[in-house]
Design goal:
By secondary structure, the protein is of the alpha/beta class. The protein contains 17 helices and 13 strands. It folds into two domains: 196 residues, 3-Layer(aba) Sandwich (Rossmann fold), CATH 3.40.50; 183 residues, Rossmann fold, CATH 3.40.50. The chain binds uridine-5'-diphosphate and alpha-D-glucopyranose (GLC).
Amino acid sequence: MADQRVLFVDQSGQMGGAQLSLLDIARHRRHDSAVLLLDDGPFRARLAEQGVPVSVEAGGAVGGLRQRGIGAGTLRGLLALPSLVRRVARRAARADVVYANTQKAMAVCVLGKWLHRRPVVWHLRDIVDASFFGRAQRLAIRWLSRGLTRVIANSQASADAFRALAGNAVAVDVVHNGIDPAPFDAALQRDRMALRVANGLPAGGLVVGLFSRLTPWKGQHVLMEAVSRTPGATLVLVGAALFGEDAYEAALRARAAQPDLAGRVHFLGFRADVAELMYCMDIVVHASVCAEPFGRVVVEGMLAARPVVATAAGGVTEIVEDGETGILVPPGDAGALAAALARLADAGVRENMGAHAREAAMRRFSPLAMLAAVDGIVAQVARVPPDVAAGQPRRAP
Ligand code: UDP
Ligand code: GLC
């Protein structure tokens, strides 16, 4: 049972993996905690539907601050920062613990610490190295990290990159995402071929699915090349360009229209029924070309009892046991991906690997274990404010 009032802060209103993971944590703590978003979007309704108190403190131009480089929006973003820091700090002061779920949220919460005086936990879901962040941004993270009380890293890979950047001054715990198996258990009861037909997918031939937002680092373009070299295979891309990567989506669609792939690539957009869709694939692929901080889709593919082909970098290597519960390939290598698909041409091989994968995922990525770990860390960093100690009624921050 949660005991401390937590204010969760997230910069995004979109439904990415970081937000889906926070949804689980905030739902579990909804009786005494609240979520503050720095941008409006579908995430707000998803939280509200689950009974989580949620509000938006619009970041405005702060949203224009980028992970890499200094652009036209940088000055405007920095100028908008003090007002946002003050507004968030007013909310934070009513919590026991401030819990930042994204980097910009972390920056805003740390910068306001002299106002709200609450411990700040950062749930780190990024690999803070040069492949994702510019030099100025890395220096900023290093400096801001001094204001953190604790870091929860979503993988050992994320923790290692953080330590390499920020040193050992802040305690870092690794807590892998837990994924609720219930939708996958239900999906496994469905008729796979009926699901395929209902989704406009072919009943025959190898059907390969990739479930990620459309952005170059998720590697949809690499998988397209691999599928173009796999005769008779169909590619299903599930996910949308969540963060303005429209040019990338247009390039993917143009490639899919070329003769060697025409009619073989299905774009399903963002979907809420991921478990069922995964179950009706023959193979689930994760194709990120950079080190994936964790990779929820990899665990989900395993829970759907699919053989998963994934790129061997970052948190993914902590999830998949190569050759046993999936197949690991080097990032950005269409030839290796095509070879892995060929290894899985046999239905018996796929079934066997999928069964091992499901057993491992159920055992190792339990949502209850994740929630217990997060509760334990929050309890350690909390300071009990005087009104609670005096037995006054609690209210959500
Ligand atoms: N997802 C979804 N609908 C889609 C595509 C993806 O709900 O159409 C979910 C997917 O099931 C997973 C999350 O989005 O839980 C993506 O998380 P992941 O950690 O794989 O990557 P991220 O996008 O956070 O980098
Ligand atoms: C981030 C990462 C992803 C991770 C998710 C949940 O969105 O990109 O790899 O699985 O957070 O922690």
